Amino acid sequence: MRSVTIAVLFALFGTTVVGAQGNTTPAAAKSTQRAGNADSQAWVAQNLQGWPKKTQELAAKLITKYGKPQEKTSRQLFWYGNGPWKRTVLYKEENLTEFPAPHADVLEQVINYRTPVEKFSDLARYNGSVMVSRTNGELVTRSDSEAANFLAVNLVNDIVTGSRSVEQALGYHGQATRALMTGSSDSYLEKIAFNVAASNASTADRNQMAPLIAHQMGKDPVVEEEARRIPTQQEADANALAARDPANAPKSAGASAVIGMRIFDSARGTEELGRVEDASTDNSGAVTYIIVASGGKMSVAPKLTAIPWGAVRSRVQGDRMILDRAQLAGAPAVSHAGGLSDAKQRAAADSYWSRAPGAAAPSETTSEPTSNPNDSANVQRESR
Question: Given a cut of 80, is residue 254 above it in pLDDT?
Fold first, then answer.
């Protein structure tokens, strides 16, 4: 029983409990705890007059555990580097919410965490009080207690790593919240259950320039999301095949294998004509069309051209594509990078490139859908 008491006190209050052989007794620990609580409550009474009672109680708990806040305004308290958190903010204003039960979001806590772009919508479905700062590489969660924030952060990590679906996370959140309300224990309420990056060097987005603007300025930046996105197994297999047989393998590769590919003139092999800015895929993930940006200068926007992948697949040489300057210049333009949802623009691209020397027949380029061209099940645009 004594060891359990010691463990509980340490977990709750960070108190080193020492016994007779150099260890503080439970009675001494309780005395220290009471003194800490009294000091915290005195600080709250002096500095947080007019704050909601529950928020004052929460402030006292945080001060007992982490010490006095490093910064204070009339409406906020700030702790930095407290325990596992990069930043903790306690707000005077109560932001009322109903999930998973009615409460006020007053406690904001932050960790360094990189959230893949493709998981943003899943996290939005899971919990509206969870926010992602992509630029800073941070995960922000708000609730009415630290335990609830521990729970949210742990379930976010489960969703991102794929160990739980959104629906499973929602179910577990409700179960753990009931445990919290009834005083039961749950490991997800007690601490962050995974390793947190000490800095955001590995979680923040690298500085980048918008690809079309960079193209206008003659730069060749890495397309951020494609460079950092973890490929699917299908893409990894296709990319490995592409390394062995680059002229043919990309026909089954995902968009990550072609986006960013540079286009060079067939007559002057060193003259760059443009680059692949975007791609669309079919239901299997294979590329069907590419969008090429070409001809842009400082004051002129580049021309965007849609090209059926099958028509130019054989012109891939390693990490580049070789096209005829006049052929690319004469190709019909699309109005914007997402223009492949327009059936007329796709038909114009098919017609033009099917007549190009060495182009594959239209049936080899893609199985063109006959249903609504805006149906995402037929034409899927890869986002960066």
Answer: no
DSSP tag of 182: H
Say if residues 55 and 72 touch (Cβ distance below 8 Å): no
Helices (DSSP H) in 247-302: which residue ranges?
none
Q: Are 201 and 215 within one domain? A: no
Identify the domain containing residue 192 by its residue range. 81-205
Token pair for residue 189?
Answer: 């309420």
User: Is 333 exposed, middle or buried (CB count within 10 Å of its CB: 0-12, 13-18, 19+)?
Assistant: middle
Is position 227 within any domain? yes
Q: Are 275 and 260 in contact (CB under 8 A)?
A: yes
- CATH number for the domain harbouring residue 251: 2.30.30.240
Residue 51 domain flag:
no
Strand, helix or coil at 358? coil
pLDDT tens digits, 28-65: 555 556 666 889 999 999 999 999 999 999 999 999 99
Whether this model's pTM surpasses 0.85: no
For the chain, report the end-to-end CA distance as a whole number of angstroms.
56
What residue type is 171 in one-letter code?
Answer: G
Q: For residue range 99-119, what is the model confidence (pLDDT) as tens digits?
A: 888 889 999 999 999 998 889
From the number of C-beta atoms within 10 Å of its C-beta (0-12, 13-18, 19+), residue 163 rates as: exposed
Rounded CA-CA distance 59/52 in Å is: 11
Q: Which of 277, 288, 159 is nearest to 220 (CA)?
A: 277
Do the Cβ atoms of 366 and 309 come closer than 8 Å? yes
